[in-house]
Specification:
- The protein is an all-alpha fold.
- Helix 4 runs antiparallel to helix 5.
- The chain has two domains: 44 residues, no CATH class; 65 residues, no CATH class.
- A hairpin with a 6-residue loop joins strand 1 and strand 2.
- The chain is elongated, with a radius of gyration of 19 Å.
- The protein is 39% helix and 3% strand.
Length: 146
């Protein structure tokens, strides 16, 4: 199925789709115009469906994806025991050791790669092979299990 007509300006073929409602658009201008009002419909999400979004045209790197806010992105948990308690999250947030570790640009890139990946588990496995991420993970574990 080829490109559709831009549903915002109705003048040219679309190159992109809104990550929330999949409406086709052609440019950054049309994307911004579309985002002025909330999407009329939302895309259904299934467990098998990759959770990535379309690139924003005109960005410095069109390969980069637009991040969804946590409120928009569904979160799937296989085991409820994997969800941290509020006190554990507060302990992580209060840890100066963890905050210092998060200043590392390599660690930031690894975390962004995991967060933006359509296959986060695979990306997480790769990151665990990198010392800076493994050390960070150990700090998070020790902060949540005092």
């Amino acid at each position: 199925m080829g490109p559709q007509q831009c549903k915002i300006c109705n003048e040219v073929k679309s190159k992109y789709k809104c990550p929330a409602c999949l409406i086709p658009y052609c440019s950054l201008t049309c994307f911004k115009k579309h985002k002025e009002t909330p999407c009329a419909t939302t895309k259904p999400v299934s467990d098998e469906e990759p959770k990535n979004s379309s690139p924003v045209p005109g960005s410095s790197d069109e390969q980069q994806t637009t991040p969804q806010s946590l409120a928009e992105r569904p979160i799937y948990v296989d085991e409820p025991i994997e969800v941290l308690e509020k006190a554990q999250l507060e302990s992580i947030a209060a840890s100066s050791e963890i905050r210092d570790a998060l200043k590392n640009e390599d660690l930031q890139k690894l975390i962004c790669n995991i967060d933006n990946s359509p296959n986060a588990e695979e990306e997480l496995e790769k990151a665990m092979g990198v010392d800076v991420f493994r050390i960070f993970s150990d700090k998070v574990l020790s902060a949540t299990n005092p």
